[in-house]
Design goal:
189 residues, mainly beta, 6-stranded antiparallel β-sheet, 5-stranded antiparallel β-sheet, 2 helices, 34% strand
Length: 189
């Protein structure tokens, strides 16, 4: 992630959103993120439409800080596909929402022992693709965290945190117990 301008600052008009300047390079997307005048961020990679990503730069920093905190915890990765601008109905219970890390493309719930992260990962025309990650501080508590999701989606095919396939039918699948589970080894993922 880079937060800076490269060269002369310039603005361009994005219909429906207003003036934007390229201010961030999202390393995981390898794509520029625009900063709107009101502090929100926007991105439209490739041929996908522009989409609001963050409420503020502060919220963006909070979501990345929380992901860094929990990324080495055992986790399960699920997937959902919805219509455009439609959140998946996950029915989460028992873990408080963390508003300071949540925005238009990321929702976080966190209680210190468990974390749940719903994130928008793709938005081709007419569809939104979401990933839900359930984290627990220990592998013994991971089933309890997952049980708090009222409508679990299917296991995703890839964990972008561990960089591994999650389903036995895919090449280089590394068994982690149940399909979809990533249990980091003591030496790391």
């Amino acid at each position: 992630m880079e937060y800076s301008l490269d060269g002369e600052a310039h603005f361009h008009w994005i219909p429906g959103y207003g003036w934007s300047m390229p201010a961030l390079l999202d390393g995981s997307w390898t794509w520029m993120v625009g900063l709107l005048l009101d502090g929100r961020t926007i991105m439209g990679p490739g041929e996908w439409p522009d989409r609001l990503i963050d409420r503020t730069l502060e919220q963006r920093l909070e979501k990345h800080a929380l992901l860094t905190e929990v990324s080495d915890w055992p986790h399960v990765t699920l997937t959902y596909v919805t219509g455009t601008q439609v959140l998946p109905a996950i029915g989460l219970s028992g873990i408080p929402a963390l508003e300071e890390a949540s925005g238009p493309a990321d929702l976080w719930w966190y209680d210190g022992e468990s974390a749940v992260h719903l994130t928008l990962v793709a938005w081709p025309e007419g569809q939104d693709h979401w990933v839900l990650r359930c984290f627990a501080r220990t592998k013994e508590h991971l089933p309890d965290t997952l049980s708090r999701v009222g409508h679990p989606g299917p296991v995703d095919s890839w964990c972008s945190i561990c960089c591994r396939f999650l389903q036995p039918s895919l090449p280089s699948y590394m068994p982690q117990g149940e399909p979809g589970y990533c249990i980091p080894s003591p030496s790391g993922p």
